[in-house]
Each structure stands twice: as C-alpha cells, then as structure tokens.
Amino acid sequence: MRRLRALLIKEFIQMRRDRLTFAMMIGLPIVQLLVFGFAINTDVKHLPTAVYDQSLQQDSRDFLSALTASEYFDITEIATSHEQVAAAVESGRTKVGVVIPPDFAENLKHGRSAAVQVIVDASDSMAASSAISAAQLVGQIKSQEIMIKRLQGVTGKKIDPPFDVRIRPWYNPDFVTAFYMVPGILGIVLTMTMVMITSMAIVRERERGTLEQLIVTPMKTWELMLGKIIPYIVVGYVQATVALLVGIVVFDLPVRGSLGLLYLLTSWFIIASLALGVLISTFAKTQMQAMQMSFFVFLPSVLLSGFMFPRESMPLFFNWLGNLLPLTFYLQILRGIILKGVGITVLWTQVMALTVFITVVLAIAIKKFQKKIA
After folding, report:
1. Which of 85, 101, 110, 346 is the most buried (most CB within 10 A)?
2. What is the pTM of this model?
3. Spatial separation of the C-alpha atoms in residues 26 and 323, rounded to whole Å
4. What does the pLDDT look like over 249-273, one tens digit per residue?
5. Which of 78, 76, 74, 67 is nearest to 46 (CA)?
C-alpha cells in the first residue's frame, strides 16, 4: 500500500503540472454541456413559411391561423404566385411553402374536399419531418372540426369525436430537449476524458521512459495499474459533479432518483472507460496512435449508444454493435435515475452488462500489460 500511495501522489503531482490537460478535464464538461444543451434542439419549430393564399376568405385565414398557432410555422413571406413560393423555398428564404387554391372556401361551403398544397424543403430531413407532421395534424384537426359542425347542423345535437385519445407523456411531459441531452452529454464527456486522456497519459509516460522506470521498481502490476487508474476515477467524479451542477442550475434538470445510486453506478462506467483506455494504451506506440484509437471508440459511442439517435430505429446488426459499448448501458442508467427515478431493481441488467465489460476488458488489458513488462 505504501508503494501504491507513493505512486498516487506522483500521479496527482504530474496531473497538476500538466495544467492544460487538467483545465480541459475540468472545463470540458461545462463547455460541452452549455454548447450541446443550448444548441442541440430536436424540437424543430418556427419554420419560415411562404404563403400564397388565392382564396382570401375567412376559411383560408382560419387555416393559416391554425398553422401559425401550432408554433411550427412562421409566415415570413406573402407570395403572389406559384413561382414566388417556389423561389422562396429554392433560395432557402423559407423552409415551407403553402398554396391555397381560389376555390378553397367554395369547396368547403359545398361539402367538397378542399385541397391545400404544402411544399417542404426536404433537404433538411428533421425540419421536413416536423413540418409534414405538423401540417398533417393541423389538417386533420380542422377537418374534424368541420365534420362535427356539419353533423351538428344536420342532427341538431352536440356530437363528440368518436375517438378520445388522451396522451400523457411521462418523465419529460414538456419534451424539453435539454432534459434528454444533458445526461447524454455527461456520458459523452466521461467517455472522451476517461478513454482518450487515460490512454494518452500512459503512452506519454512510455514515450518519456518514465513508465519503464516504474516497471523496474518492486511495484506489482496491479499496483501500477491501480496507481494509474485511481487519479482518473477522482477526475471522473469531479467531471460528473460539475456536469450535474450545470445541468441542475442552468437547465433546471430534475434529478428524480437517488443521487447516491447515481454516483455509485457512475463508478462502474468510469472503471469500464478507464479499462478501455488502458487497453488502448497497450496497443498504441505513440500518443497520436492512442488518440486515433480513442476516436475509433468515441465515434461509435456517440452514434450507436442512443445519445444521438434512437437505438430502436437502428438495423439489428448496429443495434447489437451498440451493446458492446459501455456508454449504451450508462445512458440507460443516467436517464433511468435522473428522469424516471428508477432504482437498482430496474437497472440491474445494465449494471451486469457493465460488470461483464469491465471483467473482460480489464483481464485483456492486464494480460497485454504483463506481456509488455515481460
């Protein structure tokens, strides 16, 4: 233990001397949380819209009011021809063009179907999907209102819609993107720091020859590895705490579950990431190689873990590939505890997956490390 304590003191002193890396480790969570939390927003609303209303009747105005009231469309341009609408969408001035034909009100009055053309710039698929969904919904609601009015006029009785679908979104009822993103960014920050900086730090020591100096001391392999890992566990906890504080103070992130359980299970993920970093360091010969290998892990973690895209929509092969990444399970733990308030009885499968990952990767890393020593 005395040897391990001496190595830990040496690691912390070395970490303090490398001020740039230390500042990155502490500052990275704050910068990433603020940038991602404010910039990334999947709720695509207020799309600039060009309108060519040839009807100019109360019915067409009601329809346009319903579009703007949905908050998905902002009428920014009034066109006087089809060509103007097309030019507005083509030039990028607007994302949506709405064309209402001259017989719109007349068709409604006589019970005929009234067509409305909605042109959407689908080069941005996310914005296009939001616009199409919102336009369809507004059209369905307005159609339903008109049908009910007609039936009430015929029967003279109040008529309720045949379906009464009552939607109750749980855990994030206001669909706040930051509530979904902030736990994910916490996992991303820990992945980047623990894997990349750990692997680079170990390889840097090997490049400088200081690792060989430690190897020739009476220190055992497990003491050496623990001495390298423990300081970064402390750094990981500091990062997690900073990220949580920023999430709570800046984004009003609700933490519904147990903070103690969150910190306990965070240690599983930190150890898993550190084990991966140590494994990479046994393959890499230079810091550049360590960085490139870390990115090889980092990018799939961002794309396949469920941070950016729902895993349910992925092809089966990539869904299974995501199961090999520790971030996949840590994100489920984070969102489960922070947003849903669930406990270990729900999250035990994720904990078991991380435990298996740690056991396998750490065993390979120790074996590879011992071979290098030999």
Report:
1. 85
2. 0.77
3. 29
4. 888 888 898 999 999 999 999 989 9
5. 74
